[in-house]
Amino acid sequence: MIGFRSCSVGALLFLALAALSCGSSRQLQSVSIQPAQATANGSSVQFAAMGSFSKPPSPQTLTSKDITWCASLAKGSCPGNANPGAIMDQNGSAQCVQGFTGTTYVMAGKLGPASMIPDGGAPFKVYGSATLTCP
Question: Rounded to an integer, what distance in angstroms lies between the CA atom of residue 129 and that of residue 135?
């Protein structure tokens, strides 16, 4: 009787894992960020991201569970140890770094593997970008 029970538990575990992996074929294809341009006049600026997916529901609002937010002076990757010009939180709120004046990119998306260059940061696989001006 014990052998039958362990086979049943094993079979149920296999079926549960198979069911969880069925929905993994939905892929993020593009990201758009609103507003596309903003100026931080001494306060933080709230950005929002929408994602288009390979399967419904699409498009949909993206949250910190779906994407990573960052600011960078170079489009396409989050900075490593370099000054990005702005600080982002994982809810899309950006604030200029004290003393920085100029324009920086605000990006949201799915990160790829980290760069081997110490200040290179991590490149995005799929992302959207906006600009933030720090006066």
Answer: 19
Measured from the Cβ of residue 88, the count of other Cβ atoms closer than 10 Å reads 23
CA 75 – CA 128 distance, rounded (Å) = 10
Q: What total of structural domains would you count in the chain?
A: 1
Residue 7 domain-assigned (yes or no): no
Residue 38 resides in a domain: yes
Structure-token pair, residue 83: 């000054």
Find where tokens 């939180």 sit: 89
Task: Please check whether residue 1 lies inside any domain of the structure.
Answer: no
**According to the model, what pLDDT value does residue 20 have?**
43
Q: For residue 59, say if its preceding peptide bond is cis, omega within 30 degrees of 0.
A: yes
| CATH code of the domain in which 41 resides | 2.60.40
pLDDT (mean) for 45-61: 96
* 0.70 exceeded by pTM: yes
Chain centroid, CA 37 distance in Å = 19
